[in-house]
Amino acid sequence: MLCQHCQQREAIVHLSITENEKTREVYLCEPCAKKNQEIGFVFHPAIVPEFLKALFGFNPSLIEQPSETTCPKCGITFSRITQVGKLGCSACYETFETQLEPLLRRVHGGGKNMGKVPARRGIAIKCRMELRNLKERLQLLIQQEAFEEAAVVRDEIRQLEQTKGEGNHDA
After folding, report:
1. Residue 79 belongs to what domain range?
2. Over 80: is that where the pLDDT of 102 sits?
3. Contacts for 67-74 with beta carbons within 8 Å, 24 or more apart?
């Protein structure tokens, strides 16, 4: 289908525009879509909290907001972050960690980013991650004086290291 605006290029953007309870379909090519005023929309800062609330069940007013805490790097406050809908800089994550954590857990479904593992090096990476997790668990068990369980984990670590050495997963 040709672009309804220029009638020259293939339409790759499909819009359904509803105005006064009437819907119309618009088909545009990429250059016309970029120029077209109909698809340009801007979030007004005042509606961002309502948008977040509707989208994620997040209500900024329910979060404890430190009245004077500001980011040491960019100077933004948490209340300003909730108004604008974005952080001021990378240091904001640490500064407002306690306020952001519940929101990020709700949005991302968890508190730890596991990421993707590359297919070619996946076995070696998974092996290293498992080894690191077992060593952390071993240290925790030793601190808790759960020596029988610690011995089992120690044996798992040895087995994994031996398997890793035989298979040479790091190559």
Report:
1. 45-108
2. no
3. 69/95, 69/96, 70/95, 71/95, 71/96
